[in-house]
Amino acid sequence: MDLEKTKNRFYETIFEADTRKGKLFDEVLMVLIVLSILVVIFGSVNSINQKIGLFLRILEWVITVLFTIEYATRIWVSPNPFRYIFSFYGLIDLLALLPNYLGIFLPGAQNLIVIRGLRVMRIFRILKLSRYTSAGRIILNALWNSREKITVFIIFVIILAVIIGTFMFLIEGPESGFKDIPTSIYWAIVTLTTVGYGDLSPTTHFGQMLSSFVMILGYSILAVPTGIVTANIIGKHHSNTQVCSKCMYDKHDDDALYCKRCGTSLEVKKNITR
Amino acid sequence: MDLEKTKNRFYETIFEADTRKGKLFDEVLMVLIVLSILVVIFGSVNSINQKIGLFLRILEWVITVLFTIEYATRIWVSPNPFRYIFSFYGLIDLLALLPNYLGIFLPGAQNLIVIRGLRVMRIFRILKLSRYTSAGRIILNALWNSREKITVFIIFVIILAVIIGTFMFLIEGPESGFKDIPTSIYWAIVTLTTVGYGDLSPTTHFGQMLSSFVMILGYSILAVPTGIVTANIIGKHHSNTQVCSKCMYDKHDDDALYCKRCGTSLEVKKNITR
Amino acid sequence: MDLEKTKNRFYETIFEADTRKGKLFDEVLMVLIVLSILVVIFGSVNSINQKIGLFLRILEWVITVLFTIEYATRIWVSPNPFRYIFSFYGLIDLLALLPNYLGIFLPGAQNLIVIRGLRVMRIFRILKLSRYTSAGRIILNALWNSREKITVFIIFVIILAVIIGTFMFLIEGPESGFKDIPTSIYWAIVTLTTVGYGDLSPTTHFGQMLSSFVMILGYSILAVPTGIVTANIIGKHHSNTQVCSKCMYDKHDDDALYCKRCGTSLEVKKNITR
Amino acid sequence: MDLEKTKNRFYETIFEADTRKGKLFDEVLMVLIVLSILVVIFGSVNSINQKIGLFLRILEWVITVLFTIEYATRIWVSPNPFRYIFSFYGLIDLLALLPNYLGIFLPGAQNLIVIRGLRVMRIFRILKLSRYTSAGRIILNALWNSREKITVFIIFVIILAVIIGTFMFLIEGPESGFKDIPTSIYWAIVTLTTVGYGDLSPTTHFGQMLSSFVMILGYSILAVPTGIVTANIIGKHHSNTQVCSKCMYDKHDDDALYCKRCGTSLEVKKNITR
Predict the structure, then answer these.
(1) Is the pLDDT of residue A87 over 60?
(2) Average per-residue pLDDT in chain A?
(3) How would you write A94-129 as a 3-class SS string?
(4) Residue D217: CB partners within 8 Å, gap ≥ 6?
(5) How far is CA B57 from CA B32, B42, B43, C178, in A?
(6) Which residues partner with D265 through β-bridges?
(7) Up-side HSE of residue D117: CA atoms within 13 Å toward CB?
(8) Cα–Cα distance, C99 to C37 (Å, whole number)
(9) Are B115 and B105 spatial neighbours (Cβ–Cβ below 8 Å)?
(10) What does the alpha-carbon distance between residue C187 and residue C192 come to, in Å, rounded to a whole number?
(11) Residues A126 and A39 sit within 8 Å (Cβ to Cβ)
C-alpha cells in the first residue's frame, strides 16, 4: 500500500507534467535528450573526436544508463506495463537504448559502421520532444488527415518522375550524365521538387526544352500538397459530391444536411450514396 | 446464353472490383504493372543488364503476352467494345502493348533507340493504378477544375521567361554561358520555378541584380498556382464580380442568389452579366 | 457618313472580338505576334542565324510593317484616338514598333547590342495576348489586389537579404566567394527564394549553420506571398480589426455590419475607427 | 511652459506623421536610413572603396551625427523617456548608433572585422521603415499569430534534418562530401527546403534513392508553414476539437458557442475542456 503510494507519486512525476516535480523531471529529460544527440553529432567530427572522443564516449554511457533507469521505472510504475512497452513512445524509448548495448555484443573494427548505424536510432529519442508540445498536434493532425491524399499525390509524383526520367534518358542519351533510367528518375524528382542540385542538368536544346516544361508543369502539380495541407489546417474541404434533388445545386459543404440554396433535405441522397 | 453468363462473370471480374475475384484480379494486375516497369528501369542499368539481361527480356515478353490476353478479353467482354477501345484506359492499355510488338517489325541496331523510345510508353500502363485510388479523384478534380487558370498562368510564366531571358541575354552577353536567347529563356524558367540548377548563373553585378529581382518577383507570381489549387480543394473562389443593386455590396459568394447583406435578389444583374 | 460606316465596321473588327471578322482578325494578329517573337528568339542562335539570317530579317520587317498599318488603323478608327494612344495597350503597340525604326537611325556595328536591346521590347507585344484570355483576369486581380501586401513583403525580403547578406560577408570573409556585400546579398536572395544556384555556397561550419537557419526561417517567411495570393483568390481576408462593443468579440468578417456573436451593430465603432 | 510647447511641437513632428512637418521629417529620415545602408554596402566593394572610400567614411559620420541628434531629441521630447528608450524602436535606434562610436574605442587593424561586425547593426535602422507601412502589420500579424505553430514546425524540420542527415552520413560515408554529421545535416536542410545548392549531392544509387524520398516527403511536409500562414491570413483555423453533446458533430468553428447543426450549447463542454 505504501509502495502503491510511491508508485503513484513516481507515476505522476514521470508520466504527467502538471506537478512541479513532473515539470522539472520533463525539463531534465529534454536536456538529456538534446545532449545525447549533440554527443552523436559532434562525435562524428574528426577534429572534435580526436580531442574529446573519450569524454564523449563516457558521457554517452552515462546518458544511456540514466535512460535505462528511466525506462525501467516507467515500466515499473505504469499501471499496465505492457500497454506502455508496446505504445509508440514505449518503443521509441527502447529503440533509444538498444544501440549502445548492441554495440557491446557486436565488437570489431569492421562493425564500427554498423554500430554507428544502430546508434543513429538514438536520435529517435528526440521525438519524445513532440510529447511536450501541444501545438505540434495541430500540424500532425493536418498531416495525418491529409495522409491519404498525400500518399496518392506522392504516387503521382513518382509515376510522373518515372515517365519524365525515362524520356530524359532517351533524349540526353547514356553518354551524358543521364547514364541510366534510375539516375534520370532521380534527376526528375530533383527537378519536380524544385530542389535542382545541378549535379545533373540537360545539355541538349531539346533536353532543356523538356526540363523547362517539366519545371513549369511540375510547379503547378506540386501546388497540390500545399493545397491539401492548407485545406486541412483551415478545416474546410469540398469532397462533398452530393447534388440537390430539387435545384441540382452541387457545391454543398461536407457537413451540409439541407441544400443551402433551396432548403431541400440532402439525407435521402446521402443514404443512396452510402 | 451460357456464353453471356461467362462474359458477365468475366466482366465483373475484370472491370469491377467489388467481387472477391475482381479484387484479386486487380491486385495481380497491379503487381504485373509495377513489375513491367521495374523491368524497363533496371534493364537500362548496364551492370544489371549484363548479368540478367536475357532474363529481363524474357520476363518482359511474358508480361506483354499476359497484357495482350487481358486486352483481348476486355474487348470481348465489354458490352460496347468500341466504347472501351477508344476510352482513356482502353487507349492506354493499347499504348502499353504496342512498343514490344513494334519492336519486332523495326529491327536493326540503328533503331534500338527508337524501340526503347516506344518501349517508354510501357510506363503509361502504371497510370492504370489511378483507376484504383478513389482519393486520387479529389486531386485530379482540383487540378482539372484549375486547368483553365493554370493554363493562363503557364502562358504568363512563359511570356515572363521570354522577356526576362532576352534581357538576361543582352546583359550577360553571348560570351557568357547565356550564349543565345533560348538558353537564356531556359535559365529564366529554371530561376522562376526556383529550381536553380546553377549550370547557368549570372556573373556580372547587373546580371545578379536582375536575377535577384526575378527571383523575388517570380516567387510572388508563382504563389498563384498554389493559390488556385488550394482554392479549388477548399472549393471556394471569388470569381463572382456582381454588385448588389441596392447596397452596392460586391463580395458575393459565387453561388449567391441574394445579397447576403441586404437580401436584394441578384438574379436581374446576373441576367445582365450573362 | 459612309466613311463613318467604314470606320465603325473597322472598329468592330479591330477592337472587338464578338463578330466573325473580329475573331479572325484577332487570331491572325496572335499568330503574327508569336511569329515575331520566334524571329527574335531564333535570330539569336548563331547556327540558325548563319543559315536563314536574311530570311529572318526580311520576315521581321514584313511583320513590323503589318503592325504599323494595324497601329495607324487603330488610331484612325478609335472614336477618341488620344485615349487609345495613351492607353496601356496603345503604348505597348507603339513600343512594339519603335525598336525596328530606331534601328535605322542608329546604325553602326557598335550599336548592334543597343538595337537588339530596343528590339527586345518587341516581346511586349505578346502581352496583347492577355487581352484575349478572360480567365487571366482572375489571376491578375488576385495579384493586383495583393499588390500592397506583396510590395511590403518584397521590401521585407530585401531588408532580410541585406541583413543576412552582410552577416554572411562577415562570416565567410572576402577571401571566399562572398567577396563583397552586394554579392552576399545576391546569395541571400538566391537562398531565401530557395533557388540555390550553388555558384556561391558557405564553406565554413558557422556559415553553413547560418545559411541552414536562413533556409528554414526564410521558408516560413516566404509562405506569406502564397498565403496572400491564396486569400485573394479565395476572396477572404481577416484584416477587420473591429471589436464588438458588447461582447468584445474581435474576429469579424471584413464585410460584417453586426457582431455575428451577439448581434450588436458594429457601425458606431466603424465610424470611430474611420 | 513655452518649452513645453516646443517639446509638443517637436513630439508631433518626430513621433507622429499626420502633420505636414511630420511627414517631411519621416521622409527625410527614410532617405537617410537608405543612404546609410548603401554606404555600408558599397563601402565593402573594393573597386568602389578605393575610389570614394574617404567620401563614404565622411558621409557615414555625418549620418551618424544626424541620427545621434535625432535620438537625443526623441528622448528629450518623449513624455516618458524610459518607455521610449526601452521600446522596440528605441533599442533599434540605439543599436544603429553604437557601431560607429564603439569603432573609435576599438581601434587597430586586427579589429577591423569586429568594427564592421558592429557596423552591420546599422542595418537594423532600416527596420524603422516598417513603422511607416500600415499594410506590413497584416503580414507581421499573420507571422506573429503563427509563431507557435511555426516554431514547432521548425523544430520538426530540424529533427527531421538531424535524422536524415545522420542516415545520409552512414550511406555516403565519410569519404564522400558528407564528411561528418553536421555537414550531412546541413545537406538535409538544403534539400528539405528545396534550396539545393548542389555543393553536396548523393553519388551512390542508394544515397540518391534516400534523397529522392527526402525531397518528395519533405515537399509534402514543408507545405505546412504555407498552410499555417495562409490559414492565419484568411483568419480561419480548425483547432476547435469540441464535439456536440447532442448530435456528436465535431467540426465547429473556433468561435462557435452553439452547435451549428442542432443548436445545442457548447458552453458546458467548453468549461470541461478548460
Answers:
(1) yes
(2) 73
(3) HHHHHHHHHHHHCCCHHHHHHHHHHHHHHHHHHHHH
(4) A154
(5) 15, 11, 8, 53
(6) D258
(7) 10
(8) 13
(9) no
(10) 9
(11) no
Burial class (CB in 10 A: 0-12, 13-18, 19+), C51: exposed
The C-alpha atoms of residue A78 and residue D103 are separated, in whole angstroms, by 62
Does 1.20.120.350 match the CATH number of domain A2-128? yes
Q: How far apart are CA D18 and CA D9, in angstroms?
A: 12
- How far apart CA C30 and CA A48 sit, in angstroms, is 66
Amino acid of residue A11: Y
Q: What mean pLDDT comes out for the span C172-180?
A: 80
Which residues does D194 contact at the CB level (< 8 Å), separation at least 6?
Answer: A193, A194, A195, B194, C194, C196, D215, D218, D219, D222
- Answer for the pair B250, C145: CB distance below 8 angstroms, yes or no: no
pLDDT tens-digit map of B87-107: 777 777 777 777 777 767 665
Suggest the residue from C230, C233, C236, C237 to mutate for an interface test with chain A (most A CBs closer than 10 A). Answer: C230
What residues pair up with C265 in beta bridges, in sequence order?
C258
Contact (CB, 8 A) for D199 and C201: yes
Indicate the SS3 state at residue B204: coil
Number of Cβ within a 10 Å radius of residue A225? 28
Q: Phi/psi at D195 (nearest 5 deg)?
A: -75, -55
**Cβ contact A268:B268 at 8 Å:** no
How far away is chain D from the Cα of B198, in angstroms, using its nearest Cα? 8
Question: What is the value of ipTM here, to two decimals?
Answer: 0.73
Residues 122-161 (A) with a CB less than 8 A from some CB of D: 123-124, 126-127, 129-130, 133, 135-136, 138-139, 142-143, 146, 150, 153-154, 157-158, 161
pLDDT in the model for residue D92: 73
Compute φ and ψ for A265, nearest 5 degrees: -70, 140
Q: Which of A163, A191, A196 sits opposite B123 (nearest CB)?
A: A163
**DSSP per-residue string spanning D124-179:** GGGGGHHHH-STHHHHHHHHHHTHHHHHHHHHHHHHHHHHHHHHHHHHHTTTSS--
CB contact under 8 A, C212 and D185: yes
Give yes or no for a contact between B177 and C131, defined as CB atoms under 8 angstroms apart: no
Answer yes or no: pTM beyond 0.80: no
User: Is pLDDT of C72 > 50?
Assistant: yes
Q: Do domains C2-128 and C141-239 have the same CATH topology?
A: no
* CATH number belonging to the domain at C141-239, selected among 3.90.550.10, 1.10.3210.10, 1.10.287.70, 1.20.1250.20: 1.10.287.70
Nearest residue in chain B measured CA to CA from C184: B208
Q: Are B5 and A142 in contact (CB under 8 A)?
A: no
Under an 8 A CB cutoff, do D194 and B198 touch?
Answer: no
Banded model confidence at residue D269, pLDDT cuts 50, 70, 90 = very low
Domain ranges of chain C: 2-128, 141-239, 241-274
Cα–Cα distance, A221 to C21 (Å, whole number): 38
Which grid cell sits at B213?
A: 529581382
Count of Cβ atoms closer than 10 Å to residue D26 Cβ:
18
C-alpha closest to that of A208 among B208, B189, D212, B120 = B189
Burial of C223 (0-12, 13-18, 19+ CB in 10 A): buried
Contacts of A150 in chain D (CB under 8 A): 220
In angstroms, what separates the C-alpha of B247 from chain A's closest C-alpha?
A: 21
